[in-house]
Design a protein that fits this description.
499 residues, alpha/beta, Rossmann fold, 3 domains, 11-stranded mixed sheet, globular
Amino acid sequence: MDAAVLAITLELDPTRWELGLRFRLPDGGEGRAGPLPLPFTADDLALCERALELNHSAHPRADFTAPEIARLGGWGLLRQPSDPPGPAALSGQDLHRERLREQVQGWLVHLLLDPLAVPIQALFAVQRARAERERPLLYLRLELWPTDLTLFRLPWELLHGHRLPRGDLLIGRYIRYEQAAGLPPPAPRLQVLVLHSEPKDLPPLVLQDHARIAAGLAGTAGAARMPIQALDPASLEGLQEALLALGATPTILHFAGHGDFGWRCEQCRGISHGLDDTPCGRADCGFRRHDPPEGLLAFTDPATGKPDWVGIDGVSDTLKLAGDLRLVVLTACKSAAGRRGADVFNGLAQRLMDLVPAVIASPFPLETGAAESFAGSLYAALGAGLSLVESLHQVHLRMKPRFPDEWYRPVLYLRSSQGDGGRLLQMEEDTPTVAADPPADPPHPLLAMLQAQYDAAVEQSVTAVDAVTQVKAQQQADKVERDMQRLKQALKRNRGGAQ
């Protein structure tokens, strides 16, 4: 991956409601920033989460209380504010959705980019000086503790859309989960197992992921070595049989269907989202909530065709049958949500990190069109041999123009022991062997001297403990960088581009 890496450990103090940052530079240097007070309350975050779940259409609608309506109006997010504000059911069409995303993005910039502005700009400058890139690329590796639920709930991927003056950003989420191993080496062949589950009594989806995945892979270098097998309709029993049949074959599991987050009644098998209601609506349901809510997937009951909601334990137990599962992709709504529990592992995606090196899922709803676009773009990137981080970045770039409400919602989860997720598919070396290029001429002595001055200034700007020294060092680095560029241009003119 052609990007500098800035590793950032986020540490939340829930009592003080403050965030601390520890960062590691590519050369091994370390630093700290904060603590920073969070620019929102817990209620603000919950309200914005519910508002972000509403897409551009008139449905679904969500009920908001009078104080919540007043808060949304105070932020300038209501298209038709009421006076006085009262309780209302809102759809996405009732909100300024772009303003909402900008507000949340502003929170993230305040928490992450502003306090790390000096090392970020220094790394951009190093890339420009050494690679002469017009738009340097910086990979922010966010490492989060499983107990920091508030930080997991924030849509950090919105920072992909924040354009900095000196370069662009990639975002990756890593769970600090040290006991699990990292990724295995790329495989010469990958089986893609696609599950389509569209049971009765749930809103129709008209799933096309299988076709979109095939179209995405078509024409890529890895297409012939990524065969697709589909289960449609997908039952839990069918998945178990398919995994046993695959044995030790390296596999990607792709689930397309309905997902939810809540409590499942063991008697009526219904789903509840609130602490007080009964999932089936009957007074004699007898459903009681003792455990935290969990992520659920709607498989299809082979006998009735109706939903067979399967929770974390059921999904995990089934995936243990896989011999070599490399990646799980969940295009189900709320498949990465994790709330109310003691730690983040009550969400499906995060819990699967016990078994799988990498998971892609969504904390927010995905409409069918967005989910299908995501599927095609993801497998086109994987088939081309990109790493998981680069693949998801390509997905976000391709989805953003058509799906402004949803492009940032697919999230990649990795273990903290991993780098950029690596390539899943081993690419064939088809290019013929060519003679090595002759050794390059040594750099001009003056250019070497300026490079040393530049490196020293950048290091001082990153390691300085006071703001005045940081600013002066950064100004010196900028001046030396300009001198280097002028010298390079002069040498090219004088030596025909040899230097």
